[in-house]
Amino acid sequence: MNKPLHILYAICLVVCFSACKRNNISGSSSATPEKINKVNVINLDFNNLSAKGRMQFENDGEKINTGITIRMQKDSIIWISVVPALGIEVARVRITPDSVALINRLEKTYFSDNVQALKSRFNVDLTFNMVQALLIGNYVPGENGNEKLIDRDPIQHTRQNLGAAILDQFISIESFKLKKLQISDPESPNTITVDYSDFENVGGKPVAKSTLVVANTVKENQTKKMVASINYNKIEINSNDLAFPFAIPNDYRRK
Predict the structure, then answer these.
(1) How many CA atoms lie within 13 A of 151 on its CB side?
(2) Can the peptide bond before residue 84 be classed as cis, meaning omega within 30 degrees of 0?
(3) What pLDDT, in 10s, does the model give residues 19-45?
(4) Is 8 exposed, middle or buried, given 0-12, 13-18 or 19+ CB atoms closer than 10 A?
(5) What is the C-alpha separation between 153 and 220, in angstroms, rounded?
Protein backbone atom coordinates (compact mmCIF):
# COMPACT_ATOMS: atom_id res chain seq x y z
CA MET A 1 0.00 0.00 0.00
CA ASN A 2 1.49 3.35 -1.05
CA LYS A 3 1.61 6.52 1.02
CA PRO A 4 -1.51 8.12 -0.45
CA LEU A 5 -3.53 5.00 0.34
CA HIS A 6 -2.05 4.93 3.85
CA ILE A 7 -3.29 8.46 4.36
CA LEU A 8 -6.71 7.61 2.98
CA TYR A 9 -6.96 4.56 5.22
CA ALA A 10 -6.09 6.73 8.21
CA ILE A 11 -8.88 9.08 7.21
CA CYS A 12 -11.31 6.17 7.09
CA LEU A 13 -10.26 5.10 10.59
CA VAL A 14 -10.86 8.57 11.87
CA VAL A 15 -14.14 9.04 10.02
CA CYS A 16 -15.66 5.68 10.94
CA PHE A 17 -14.40 4.89 14.40
CA SER A 18 -12.28 7.56 15.89
CA ALA A 19 -12.96 10.69 17.94
CA CYS A 20 -12.03 14.24 17.15
CA LYS A 21 -10.15 15.65 20.11
CA ARG A 22 -9.98 19.31 21.08
CA ASN A 23 -7.39 21.45 22.76
CA ASN A 24 -8.75 24.67 24.22
CA ILE A 25 -9.21 26.28 27.61
CA SER A 26 -7.30 24.46 30.33
CA GLY A 27 -8.74 23.80 33.75
CA SER A 28 -11.28 21.65 35.52
CA SER A 29 -14.88 21.35 34.42
CA SER A 30 -17.92 21.99 36.58
CA ALA A 31 -20.31 20.33 34.15
CA THR A 32 -22.96 18.04 35.62
CA PRO A 33 -23.32 14.58 34.08
CA GLU A 34 -26.64 13.60 32.56
CA LYS A 35 -28.35 10.23 32.63
CA ILE A 36 -28.33 8.76 29.13
CA ASN A 37 -30.08 5.41 29.08
CA LYS A 38 -28.10 3.37 31.60
CA VAL A 39 -25.03 5.53 32.26
CA ASN A 40 -24.07 8.93 33.69
CA VAL A 41 -22.02 10.86 31.14
CA ILE A 42 -20.97 14.35 30.00
CA ASN A 43 -21.35 14.88 26.25
CA LEU A 44 -20.24 17.96 24.32
CA ASP A 45 -23.05 19.93 22.68
CA PHE A 46 -22.41 22.37 19.80
CA ASN A 47 -23.88 23.96 16.70
CA ASN A 48 -20.68 23.78 14.67
CA LEU A 49 -17.08 22.81 15.34
CA SER A 50 -13.65 23.38 13.79
CA ALA A 51 -10.50 21.57 14.93
CA LYS A 52 -6.90 21.50 13.70
CA GLY A 53 -4.04 19.24 14.70
CA ARG A 54 -1.60 16.52 13.71
CA MET A 55 -2.25 12.90 12.86
CA GLN A 56 0.39 10.17 12.89
CA PHE A 57 -0.26 6.89 11.12
CA GLU A 58 1.82 3.72 11.25
CA ASN A 59 1.39 0.55 9.21
CA ASP A 60 3.89 -2.22 8.38
CA GLY A 61 6.74 -0.17 9.83
CA GLU A 62 6.00 2.90 7.72
CA LYS A 63 5.10 6.13 9.51
CA ILE A 64 3.23 9.16 8.19
CA ASN A 65 2.82 12.49 9.95
CA THR A 66 0.23 14.87 8.54
CA GLY A 67 -1.85 17.88 9.42
CA ILE A 68 -5.60 17.46 9.69
CA THR A 69 -8.56 19.83 9.88
CA ILE A 70 -12.06 18.74 10.85
CA ARG A 71 -15.20 20.85 10.56
CA MET A 72 -18.68 19.83 11.58
CA GLN A 73 -22.17 21.27 11.34
CA LYS A 74 -24.24 19.39 13.90
CA ASP A 75 -26.49 16.71 12.41
CA SER A 76 -25.69 17.97 8.91
CA ILE A 77 -22.11 17.60 7.63
CA ILE A 78 -18.63 16.38 8.58
CA TRP A 79 -15.73 17.80 6.54
CA ILE A 80 -12.08 16.66 6.76
CA SER A 81 -8.98 18.05 5.04
CA VAL A 82 -5.56 16.33 5.11
CA VAL A 83 -2.46 18.47 4.49
CA PRO A 84 0.83 16.55 5.02
CA ALA A 85 3.37 19.30 4.23
CA LEU A 86 3.97 22.64 2.51
CA GLY A 87 0.29 23.50 2.86
CA ILE A 88 -0.68 21.23 -0.03
CA GLU A 89 -3.90 19.30 0.53
CA VAL A 90 -3.80 15.64 -0.53
CA ALA A 91 -7.28 14.51 0.47
CA ARG A 92 -10.69 15.88 1.44
CA VAL A 93 -13.68 14.04 2.91
CA ARG A 94 -17.35 15.02 3.18
CA ILE A 95 -19.93 13.04 5.13
CA THR A 96 -23.65 13.86 5.27
CA PRO A 97 -26.54 11.83 6.73
CA ASP A 98 -27.06 10.33 3.25
CA SER A 99 -23.63 10.14 1.61
CA VAL A 100 -19.85 9.77 1.92
CA ALA A 101 -17.43 11.34 -0.59
CA LEU A 102 -13.63 11.54 -0.77
CA ILE A 103 -11.24 13.41 -3.08
CA ASN A 104 -7.71 12.02 -3.59
CA ARG A 105 -5.72 14.89 -5.08
CA LEU A 106 -2.51 12.87 -5.47
CA GLU A 107 -4.16 10.28 -7.70
CA LYS A 108 -6.74 12.70 -9.17
CA THR A 109 -9.56 10.36 -8.23
CA TYR A 110 -12.69 10.56 -6.11
CA PHE A 111 -15.08 8.23 -4.32
CA SER A 112 -18.77 8.86 -3.68
CA ASP A 113 -21.51 6.57 -2.42
CA ASN A 114 -24.67 6.61 -0.34
CA VAL A 115 -24.63 5.55 3.28
CA GLN A 116 -26.99 2.61 2.79
CA ALA A 117 -24.66 1.07 0.20
CA LEU A 118 -21.72 1.41 2.58
CA LYS A 119 -23.73 -0.22 5.38
CA SER A 120 -24.46 -3.18 3.12
CA ARG A 121 -20.89 -3.40 1.90
CA PHE A 122 -19.25 -3.43 5.34
CA ASN A 123 -22.17 -4.90 7.31
CA VAL A 124 -21.80 -2.30 10.07
CA ASP A 125 -24.88 -0.34 11.09
CA LEU A 126 -23.28 3.10 11.57
CA THR A 127 -25.55 6.15 11.30
CA PHE A 128 -24.45 9.73 10.72
CA ASN A 129 -25.33 10.71 14.27
CA MET A 130 -23.29 7.81 15.61
CA VAL A 131 -20.23 8.78 13.54
CA GLN A 132 -20.66 12.40 14.65
CA ALA A 133 -20.72 11.34 18.30
CA LEU A 134 -17.65 9.15 17.92
CA LEU A 135 -15.74 11.95 16.17
CA ILE A 136 -16.28 14.38 19.04
CA GLY A 137 -15.72 11.82 21.77
CA ASN A 138 -19.34 11.64 22.89
CA TYR A 139 -21.02 8.57 24.31
CA VAL A 140 -23.19 6.75 21.74
CA PRO A 141 -26.43 5.56 23.34
CA GLY A 142 -27.99 2.39 22.02
CA GLU A 143 -31.54 2.09 20.79
CA ASN A 144 -34.18 0.52 22.98
CA GLY A 145 -33.22 -3.06 23.77
CA ASN A 146 -29.84 -2.75 22.03
CA GLU A 147 -27.71 -1.61 24.94
CA LYS A 148 -26.52 -3.72 27.86
CA LEU A 149 -24.88 -2.40 31.02
CA ILE A 150 -21.96 -4.75 31.63
CA ASP A 151 -20.46 -3.00 34.67
CA ARG A 152 -20.83 0.18 36.77
CA ASP A 153 -17.62 0.14 38.82
CA PRO A 154 -14.70 0.85 38.52
CA ILE A 155 -15.82 2.07 35.08
CA GLN A 156 -19.20 2.22 33.34
CA HIS A 157 -19.17 -0.36 30.55
CA THR A 158 -21.94 -0.77 27.98
CA ARG A 159 -22.30 -3.02 24.93
CA GLN A 160 -24.49 -2.80 21.84
CA ASN A 161 -24.74 -4.35 18.38
CA LEU A 162 -23.75 -2.50 15.20
CA GLY A 163 -25.06 -4.84 12.55
CA ALA A 164 -22.60 -7.73 12.57
CA ALA A 165 -20.18 -5.82 14.82
CA ILE A 166 -20.20 -5.12 18.57
CA LEU A 167 -19.54 -1.73 20.17
CA ASP A 168 -18.18 -1.60 23.74
CA GLN A 169 -17.91 1.78 25.48
CA PHE A 170 -16.18 2.64 28.75
CA ILE A 171 -17.12 5.80 30.69
CA SER A 172 -15.17 7.13 33.67
CA ILE A 173 -17.05 7.34 36.99
CA GLU A 174 -14.84 10.31 37.94
CA SER A 175 -14.90 12.56 34.85
CA PHE A 176 -18.03 10.99 33.32
CA LYS A 177 -16.34 11.11 29.92
CA LEU A 178 -15.98 8.37 27.34
CA LYS A 179 -12.48 6.98 27.91
CA LYS A 180 -12.40 4.07 25.51
CA LEU A 181 -14.42 2.30 22.85
CA GLN A 182 -13.89 -0.92 20.98
CA ILE A 183 -15.52 -2.21 17.81
CA SER A 184 -15.12 -5.95 17.35
CA ASP A 185 -16.19 -8.70 15.00
CA PRO A 186 -17.58 -11.69 16.93
CA GLU A 187 -16.73 -13.97 14.00
CA SER A 188 -13.02 -13.04 13.97
CA PRO A 189 -10.26 -11.54 16.18
CA ASN A 190 -10.45 -8.24 14.24
CA THR A 191 -10.85 -5.18 16.47
CA ILE A 192 -10.61 -1.39 16.40
CA THR A 193 -9.89 0.27 19.75
CA VAL A 194 -9.98 4.01 20.48
CA ASP A 195 -8.48 5.46 23.66
CA TYR A 196 -9.16 9.06 24.75
CA SER A 197 -6.79 11.01 27.01
CA ASP A 198 -5.46 14.45 27.99
CA PHE A 199 -8.81 16.02 28.84
CA GLU A 200 -9.26 19.80 28.92
CA ASN A 201 -12.16 22.18 29.41
CA VAL A 202 -14.01 23.23 26.24
CA GLY A 203 -17.19 25.24 26.54
CA GLY A 204 -17.46 24.30 30.21
CA LYS A 205 -17.14 20.57 29.59
CA PRO A 206 -14.15 18.17 29.68
CA VAL A 207 -13.04 17.08 26.21
CA ALA A 208 -10.09 14.89 25.20
CA LYS A 209 -7.44 16.49 23.01
CA SER A 210 -5.59 13.24 22.25
CA THR A 211 -6.74 9.97 20.79
CA LEU A 212 -5.12 6.67 19.90
CA VAL A 213 -6.74 4.37 17.34
CA VAL A 214 -5.44 0.80 17.02
CA ALA A 215 -6.78 -1.59 14.37
CA ASN A 216 -5.84 -5.27 14.64
CA THR A 217 -6.71 -7.53 11.71
CA VAL A 218 -5.95 -11.20 11.11
CA LYS A 219 -5.75 -12.55 7.58
CA GLU A 220 -4.29 -15.89 6.53
CA ASN A 221 -2.99 -16.45 10.08
CA GLN A 222 -1.07 -13.18 9.98
CA THR A 223 -1.84 -10.34 12.38
CA LYS A 224 -1.55 -6.78 11.14
CA LYS A 225 -1.59 -3.73 13.38
CA MET A 226 -2.35 -0.20 12.21
CA VAL A 227 -2.07 2.75 14.58
CA ALA A 228 -3.36 6.32 14.18
CA SER A 229 -2.80 8.99 16.83
CA ILE A 230 -4.38 12.44 16.75
CA ASN A 231 -3.45 15.49 18.79
CA TYR A 232 -5.35 18.73 18.34
CA ASN A 233 -3.87 22.14 19.02
CA LYS A 234 -6.83 24.34 18.13
CA ILE A 235 -10.57 24.01 18.52
CA GLU A 236 -13.45 26.40 18.04
CA ILE A 237 -17.13 25.74 18.61
CA ASN A 238 -20.15 27.74 17.46
CA SER A 239 -18.14 30.08 15.23
CA ASN A 240 -19.65 32.18 12.45
CA ASP A 241 -19.28 31.61 8.70
CA LEU A 242 -17.80 28.10 8.84
CA ALA A 243 -17.44 26.82 5.26
CA PHE A 244 -17.43 23.25 3.90
CA PRO A 245 -16.10 23.54 0.31
CA PHE A 246 -16.18 20.32 -1.69
CA ALA A 247 -15.85 20.55 -5.46
CA ILE A 248 -14.68 17.58 -7.54
CA PRO A 249 -12.53 18.68 -10.52
CA ASN A 250 -13.90 17.67 -13.90
CA ASP A 251 -10.75 15.71 -14.86
CA TYR A 252 -10.80 13.49 -11.73
CA ARG A 253 -11.64 9.80 -12.22
CA ARG A 254 -14.25 8.05 -10.10
CA LYS A 255 -13.09 4.97 -8.19
Answers:
(1) 11
(2) no
(3) 333 334 344 556 899 999 889 999 999
(4) buried
(5) 38
